[in-house]
Please model this.
Amino acid sequence: METDRRKEVSNYNCWTEVTLRYNDTDAVGHINNGAFFSFLEQGRATAMFNGTAPISEPGTMFVIASVKLDFLAEMNFPGLVRIGTVIKSFGRTSVTLNQAIFLDGTCRGVSEEVMVLIDLVSRKPIVITDETRKKIESRVMPAFSDSI
Model:
């Protein structure tokens, strides 16, 4: 099953670490579902930005178009989560990423996100250039040929 493969640490090569905060917890005492989305966003920022500069050409930006997150296990404060990111596929104007959130070596959530490259003036999707694609691939290698 696809989710099972995405739970394997070895499938990821771009990593981001985030310290869990007490204020990430909810009334039940586990990490709030909304915090999971913040962890994914931090992982995407690591993958898609080079420092503070976007990885795409000037005047363009990748925006999130879709996020599907499967919650697999709860997390509790304190801790250090690791977010793994890998390219699933490229489209003409988009890139699809798979991500997984790990705590204490256990996968707590897996996601698939579609990011679309837009022109900042028109706010319309534009074609991803070969140069931009190579920059992304240099930071986040594609998954194995049989996609995760």
Residues 66 and 114 are 5 Å apart (CA to CA). The first helix runs from residue 2 to 6. The chain has one domain: 2-139.
